[in-house]
Amino acid sequence: MTSVSAGSLTVSVVIPALNEADNLAHVLPRLPDWVSEILLVDGHSTDATVEVARQLQPNIRVIQQDGFGKGDAIRTGFAHATGQIVVMLDADGSMDPAEIPLFVGALLSGAQMAKGSRFLQGGGTTDMPLYRQLGNQAFVLLVRWFFGGRYSDLCYGYNSFWAEVLPVLELDCDGFEVETVINVHALRAGLRITEVPSFEASRVHGRGRLRTLPDGWRVLKALIRERVQPFQPRAVPVVTDSSAALAVQKAG
């Protein structure tokens, strides 16, 4: 059992990045000052991503990714994070760091995973064409049919967790399907999951690396694989909330 006091809560933010030098100024300076650890997982960038990150946040931990893909980057970041709470955040400026207190607050209120949703009241997106919205909703319905649960969003990577439950997720994927696999494994493991409304903006600079058809196919294959393969998660640790919730709410 983990007990956290207001003075001892530690929060790690994991940020996968590949050639995001132009966008980091819209992300790193906006992190709450009570974040304990910032990990930038560099996916073999050929621009000044690492240099810019260190200029903006001198205490940032830069982890060089051995493999390739967002899923591999997320797994790498999770393996190196030392905080009691771990937050996933994209490096392209599409996710608002000011929402982090909402995610942390959901964990302190009893959730084991706080999952961002663009389709709850208070959330939204300007970076999702209609055909992608329809595809996302189709995957949501497929997850409900295969595994139960009542997710309102699936293919979105703004999440937070108590670090103790990360091994339960048993991640083994490398690509953009990682967000779907996280959500499915959390559901199948019986984690207490709270959806948090989140607004997704368009990336500030550059073009995204998500390829609608190839990556949608990866998501579909991941869902089918999860449906046919047995999943026996590790025992879920018991995590308690504490008076740290008040400190985070004030900080936010």
Q: Please, could you describe this protein's structure?
A:
The chain is α/β, with parallel strands linked by helices. The chain has a single domain (11-229), classed as Spore Coat Polysaccharide Biosynthesis Protein SpsA, Chain A, CATH 3.90.550.10. It is built from eight helices and nine strands. The protein has a seven-stranded mixed beta sheet with strand order 3-2-1-4-7-5-8, sandwiched between helices. The protein has a two-stranded parallel ribbon with strand order 6-9. Helix 3 packs antiparallel against helix 8 and helix 4 (130-147) runs parallel beside helix 7. The longest helix is centred in the middle third of the chain and has 18 residues, at 130-147. Mean pLDDT is 87; it is low at 1-6 and 240-252.
Task: Name its key features.
globular, 8 helices, alpha/beta, seven-stranded mixed β-sheet, 252 residues, single chain, two-stranded parallel ribbon, 9 strands, Spore Coat Polysaccharide Biosynthesis Protein SpsA, Chain A, 15% strand
Question: In terms of topology, how is this protein built?
Answer:
Layout: E1 11-17, E2 37-42, H1 49-56, E3 61-64, H2 70-80, E4 85-88, H3 100-108, E5 113-117, E6 124-125, H4 130-147, E7 159-162, H5 166-169, H6 178-188, E8 193-197, E9 199-200, H7 212-228, H8 244-251
